[in-house]
Amino acid sequence: MWNFFKNFVYAVLLVNMTIGAVHCSWDPYKVLGLKRGASIPEIRRAYKQSAREWHPDKNRNENAESKFVEVNKAYELLSDPVRRKLFDQKGVVDDSLNRNMHNPNNRFGDGASFFSGHGGFRFQFKMSEMTAFHQYRITLRRYENFILPQSQNQPYLILVYSEWCLMCLHVLPIWQRLVEDLNPIGINLATVHFDQEVELANKLGGRRGELPHVVLVMDSRISHYIEDELSNSKVIEFIRSRFSRNLIAFVNDQNINEFIGGWKDNKVRVMLFGKLELVRLRYLTLAFKYRPHTLFGYAQLNLETTRAIVDKFGIPLKLDSLLLFQEDRDRPAARLSMADLPYSTLKDIIETNKYLQLPRLSSQKMLDLLCPPESSNVRRRLCAILVTEDREEDEEAREQLRHFTRQFKFSRDRIVFSYLFREKQTEFLRALLEDGKSPAEATTKVVIVWRQDIQRLSYSWLPQPFVSGADNWNSSVNYLHRTLIKILGSAQPLAHTTSMKELVDEYARGILGRITARLVTTAEILRDHFTRQELLAVGSVVGTVLFIAAVGYVMTYLVRLEEETIRKTNKGLPKTPRPTTTELKLHELRSETYNGMVRLLKPGCRTVVLLLDNESMDVLIPKFHKAVWPYRKNKSLLFGWMNIDRGLPWYSRLLNLALKIADDDEGTDVTLDSNSVKPKNCVGTVVSLNGHRRYFCIYHARHPECVSDSGAKRMQNMARRLTVSNRVMNDASGAFMGFDSSLEDSDNSDVERGDPLKSQDMEPLITSGLGLHTQQFSTDFALEGLSNWLDRLFEGTTQRYNINYWPDFGNL
Q: What is the pTM of this model?
């Protein structure tokens, strides 16, 4: 009975899940204006923008409230990794039923849980000590939405445990000690319950039977603790090894000026002084957190190499000290000396002074930090931006603006001073300029900016430039001070409004930098997942491959060197010209290529063949190649040539088949004498062969289609006229088909005697250009009209001669 009831419940839940899994038209990605695969920061940014836009208190649209609810619904779905995965894979929007099935409190969700809750076959530990793990427990959603993004600035040490794990109980005191030691110095700790967060545990590398498992999540990368023994000292050493070696620079008397004098990187300098040779872990976590804005250096006390620094800044030798420098290298902006510098105190000092007095807008992220969007006109935060160029001449203007910020201490909550390089942020400046103005005209001018939202901003240009120099100092400062007081004291909007263009990231890595970073990351992953012996084996294989590649390169270089030597040796010798190869190939039509070029052509394809002999080959082939060159990319065309001395029997049979078709249409009976076809009259003829549809077209300079005479007619009845008598086939009008025509002035000339069929057809034989005084045809002019004929051929307006089958290529 129980099994029947359980199966019934499963069936009902399965039906409901199937109904809920139907793909609906509602798409949370479209609601927030995102693409599939968007990251968590992109989802948050889009949600904030959409929520601000559709908030009912700010948007008077009647659909604003429903749209705002829809935006929140989309954000809730996409911020939950489990629901987002279900939507991406199956289109599921409502996951409540699926959650109920996996709820550990649901008696019907898991048969094993049901039996174990009633004293079944499994025994579960119920000890109060496990609460030390439970209070730091995280879910997959928290890991994806909070821990992973925050790991860019703060390391997370995560322990994967299970209530069935005896070793987890043994490491509990060590874990509690780690919490006490690491939390105060900026390293957060968390735990993952293997049985309740299986997907997250697998993602972190936890496996049943290998618990507890410890990982460090830092900079969105997972590093695994692979030591056999879990101890406090080894875990701390493991965390220390994950920090970059260049995170804190070691400073001495020789490089101190170089360290605190380079402000072009837009970073504050922090000097730490300590008695220990090893840098404290709290300093490393602090440098990791503020590395986008701050550059850290460390100097050990009681050393000869740091005595000058200690004497210059008056550092106590028995205390740990901190010096924070902004643009003034001789006078620190903040200093602190204590026997033990607490992490929280160091964090507060750096947080207050993490920007330079006059920071540069070097990226969109820097603009968002200095000038965040604020829609309220009362609480608006202004940005005064000085436009300069990246040159030493403008450094005086920037220094005077720094002096202005120190003299008139405006609140950073109301206005922030900064500058940018005109040549590097051209697109951003172009959006702030009026039509027709060049960004070069804005140099050394100040613009006041108020960001109303992520995309819109208001701005006002100060008409008077901020001119440097002692003579102009007072006037520039007074004018700037009066203008800022007037703008801050008034709630009126600024003069102009525009859509903002994002700033270019001046410190974005190039291709080489990205490749180097990827290689470093790969090396760290290999170090985490492979032992020393495995790395040596892989290294030997890679070294062998590189050695073979190097040997191959050396051999290639030697071969090239030898070729160069031979080339220099043979430099004075005459060179044999090599035949030039062209993109268009001309194939010879002969018995071996006949089937491929004619009989086996695919539908829609045709072969264009030039007839020539040995004497005319050198003259006609270049002309023919030039004429068909524009059609070289047409894959349905094949071009070739045929030696008429070799293919004359085939050509005669082809003409005979065409005349038989005309004979059947007219009811006459004429047989073509193959001896009447003479090779000399065939030279210069171009034949287009359609192998699939079994017809051909002929071009010849004497062909009636090629005569440009208004009185000449198209060749509608030419085939019929050529089959009336042998006398007609010997006419000069048949020369285009290859019939013998001496074209001499004789009494037997058909043109001179007239056409005996003239009275029947009432149309003259084609005589244009073929008169009595026409001389022997010259090969120099044989292909003059070929280009025009090819155009008509592809238009389908040339005369077609049909045949019943393709004759064999060979002797009769």
A: 0.57
